[in-house]
Design brief:
CATH topology of the largest domain: DNA polymerase, domain 1
Strand content: 5-15%
Strand order of the largest sheet: 2-1-5-3-4
Structural class: alpha+beta
Bound molecules: FE2/S2 (inorganic) cluster
Largest sheet: 5 strands, mixed
Helix content: 40-55%
Distance between the termini: 68 Å
Number of helices: 5
Number of strands: 5
Number of domains: 2
Shape: globular
Order of helices and strands: EEHEEEHHHH
CATH superfamily of the largest domain: [2Fe-2S]-binding domain
Length: 177
């Protein structure tokens, strides 16, 4: 069967691949692009282990066809850290021991990041509802919830500090003008 040529952007990099029309985005990420951070849990959109962002929207990569990525922006767990610097969510998952087998972890991290981008200060209830599409068979969820809330608090504190620093710098420029 002939394959489709797809050009897309993954974690900021333009990539091209060939895929069969029935291949899922998850299959393409793992088998063609060798980005194996996104996991296949259920392959039916129930467990969230394959969560990725597609044009800024949280999706299960097992429910998206590879050909649907044409011309779009895909973000995966591989794009979360900045070089050797972990994203605050990744760091807090380590500090809170919020993973055991780790199969669910990439999906939780991608989903939690998506929430904090639209709601930097979620309540525990809001967070638990948001993460209801991500299943974990090991942790009992509490450590994951604590890790995300802790990361959110750290990210808010960092944002406040950055804003204050920028205001200070602007004030100094204005005084010297
Ligand atoms: Fe094993 Fe979540 S850590 S499924």
């Amino acid at each position: 069967m002939s394959k489709q040529h797809v050009t897309t952007t993954v974690n900021g990099d333009e990539v091209e691949f060939l895929c069969a029309t029935e291949q899922t985005l998850l299959d393409v990420l793992r088998d063609e692009l060798h980005l194996t951070g996104s996991k296949e849990g259920c392959a039916s959109g129930d467990c969230g282990a394959c969560s990725v962002m597609l044009d800024g929207r949280l999706v299960c990569a097992c429910l998206v066809l590879g050909v649907e990525a044409e011309g779009r922006q895909v973000e995966t767990i591989e794009g979360m850290a900045s070089g050797d610097t972990l994203h605050p969510l990744q760091q807090k998952f380590l500090e809170h021991a919020a993973l055991q087998c780790g199969i669910c972890t990439p999906g939780f991290l991608v989903a939690a990041k998506a929430l904090l981008e639209i709601n930097p200060d979620p309540t525990e209830t809001e967070l638990r509802y948001w993460l209801a599409g991500n299943l974990c068979r090991c942790t009992g969820y509490d450590k994951i919830v604590r890790a995300v809330l802790d990361a959110a608090a750290q990210m808010r504190a960092t944002a406040t500090k950055t804003t204050a620093t920028n205001r200070g710098a602007q004030g100094a420029v204005a005084e010297n003008a």
